[in-house]
Design the sequence.
């Protein structure tokens, strides 16, 4: 209904074992054999024996299962809205990640409110080991690569996902070596290397804010901040996440909730950065050529490090003209230009003229006078 890729039968069988109430895997709540599951579904689904892919037999099946008729006459089979389906898949994936490789160590607390503090005892031996062969499991690969993407489809009324986030965050904190092994293993996997690397599991990041900004909708982030005050983890700044992922609306929400525009934040593991691990949000926005975010951060009175001006005029980089315009209008630029060009007044004009068309050169030169 809401899966982000075709699902095979073994994937579905494993997912059905997840008990969200007790946060554990339970073999007793699923059919004992795959054939039994297909028999229960009957003509509603088709199963491709060669690929093991299960799909709806017709588009009308989805309409039927989500329609008013079945809701009124057979409510036990009503699956709810598309948004609810995305919520369930997001929760199942996060719960499964919490149980990854060690279902017997599940977090068994039922989460009655989004303020619940999760408590679970995880053995030292288990926390230090992870069977990397488990990464071949279809459900685990889906949870790691696409599980959080379901959060993009959620609105305000999905507070239970915050419980699952907190449970997973606790698990990651208790098992840092295991999650390091997962990241190391996936760094050589072609599917995960560039697009799905789980940097969110790096303990230097603020897990929940990272997830909500990278994957969640603006409404979901807003709902979370209604329930929990914005208190980023030490060494992080959620505005850095918003600028790295070019999420201007998320940044606006964060600024309205008191996010600090002049605090540096962690970019550990994120691609495109040098040896430094912490940056100002504005530095990240310029690096990502995020024009709207640059203007937003400058309007919020972000300070402008001198190296941004050096980057802007360097022949080795090409910063969008609109960002150059915005930077040249700042007080910091005037101070930097005076310092850099007091003995070489032609230097700045020369550097700018090397990189832009004639009409752009004239415009920029006029601004620097």
Sequence:
């Amino acid at each position: 209904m809401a899966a982000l890729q075709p699902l095979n039968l073994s994937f579905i069988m494993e997912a059905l074992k997840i008990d969200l109430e007790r946060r554990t895997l339970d073999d007793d709540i699923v059919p004992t054999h795959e054939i039994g599951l297909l028999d229960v579904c009957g003509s509603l689904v088709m199963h491709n024996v060669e690929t093991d892919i299960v799909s709806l037999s017709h588009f009308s099946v989805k309409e039927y299962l989500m329609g008013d008729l079945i809701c009124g006459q057979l409510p036990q089979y009503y699956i709810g809205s598309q948004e609810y389906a995305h919520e369930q898949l997001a929760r199942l994936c996060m719960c499964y990640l919490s149980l990854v490789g060690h279902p017997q160590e599940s977090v068994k607390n039922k989460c009655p409110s989004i303020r619940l503090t999760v408590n679970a005892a995880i053995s030292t031996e288990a926390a230090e080991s992870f069977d990397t062969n488990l990464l071949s499991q279809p459900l685990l690969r889906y949870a790691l690569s696409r599980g959080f993407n379901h959060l993009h489809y959620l609105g305000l009324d999905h507070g239970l996902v915050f419980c699952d986030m907190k449970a997973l965050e606790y698990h990651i904190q208790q098992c840092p070596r295991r999650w390091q092994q997962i990241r190391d293993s996936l760094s050589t996997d072609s599917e995960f290397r560039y697009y799905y690397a789980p940097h969110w599991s790096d303990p230097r990041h603020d897990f929940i804010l990272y997830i909500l900004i990278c994957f969640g909708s603006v409404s979901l982030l807003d709902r979370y901040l209604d329930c929990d005050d914005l208190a980023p983890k030490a060494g992080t700044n959620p505005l850095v996440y918003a600028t790295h992922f070019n999420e201007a609306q998320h940044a606006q929400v964060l600024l309205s909730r008191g996010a600090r525009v002049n605090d540096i934040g962690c970019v550990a593991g994120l691609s495109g950065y040098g040896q430094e691990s912490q940056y100002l949000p504005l530095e990240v926005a310029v690096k990502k050529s995020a024009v709207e975010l640059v203007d937003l951060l400058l309007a919020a009175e972000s300070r402008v490090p001198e190296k941004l001006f050096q980057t802007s005029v360097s022949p080795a980089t090409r910063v969008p003209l609109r960002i150059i315009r915005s930077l040249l209008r700042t007080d910091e630029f005037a101070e930097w230009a005076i310092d850099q060009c007091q003995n070489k007044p032609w230097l700045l004009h020369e550097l700018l003229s090397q990189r832009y068309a004639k009409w752009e050169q004239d415009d920029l030169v006029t601004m620097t006078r």
Notes: The chain has 20 helices and seven strands. The first strand starts at residue 7 and ends at 8.
